[in-house]
Specification:
Layout: E1 7-12, H1 24-33, E2 39-44, H2 47-58, E3 66-70, E4 76-81, H3 83-92, H4 97-112, H5 120-141, E5 145-147, E6 160-162
Parallel strand pairs: 1-2, 2-4
Antiparallel strand pairs: 3-4, 5-6
Length: 164
């Protein structure tokens, strides 16, 4: 069912040693739990590099919090994260950095499998897979957070709330 011989690369291209909110072993466990992905690179970059990538690949100026690049078979890919953008979002929305970071990793992993959220039917399928990975992750980490019901997939409308 779940493979244990998957390849994970964690790369920090920032000057922040504490930018990783979770242990490498957790990321490996998450990749092992996810059946369809076999190779994953998670790369942390600064705002300048993220701005460059965002403009080059999405034709949008300025940094974003995450970009994902799947391979042609949707079995591997790269997730590029900007810790400063993630922290800013988390701070503004009063959620922990770890929660936002984890959510972006999970959301991006689903994108790497070839799903998107522009079509309503595909968005439903994507959310179901995301919710499964989210539940598994927070139970492994002992986090008391969940995805809001009715959550939309627009990054600007993403809502996370603490369980009562």
């Amino acid at each position: 069912m779940h493979m244990n011989n998957k390849n994970l690369n964690l790369i920090n291209k920032t000057f922040y040693n504490d930018a990783w909110p979770l242990q490498a072993s957790f990321f490996q466990s998450l990749l092992d739990y996810e059946d369809d992905l076999h190779e994953l690179a998670i790369v942390l970059v600064d705002k300048q590099e993220m701005s460059f990538l965002n403009e080059q690949y999405r034709h949008k100026k300025g940094p974003t919090d995450v970009l994902s690049f799947p391979n042609e078979e949707n079995t591997a890919g790269d997730i590029i994260l900007c810790p400063k953008e993630i922290f800013s979002y988390a701070y503004c929305h009063r959620i922990p950095y770890t929660v936002r970071f984890l959510h972006l990793i999970i959301h991006s992993m689903i994108h790497l499998k070839g799903l998107d959220h522009y079509d309503p039917q595909e968005a439903k399928k994507m959310f179901a897979q995301e919710e499964k990975l989210w539940f598994w992750s927070v139970s492994q980490l002992g986090l008391n957070w969940k995805l809001n019901p009715g959550y939309t997939y627009s990054h600007s409308n993403t809502q996370l709330r603490k369980l009562n």
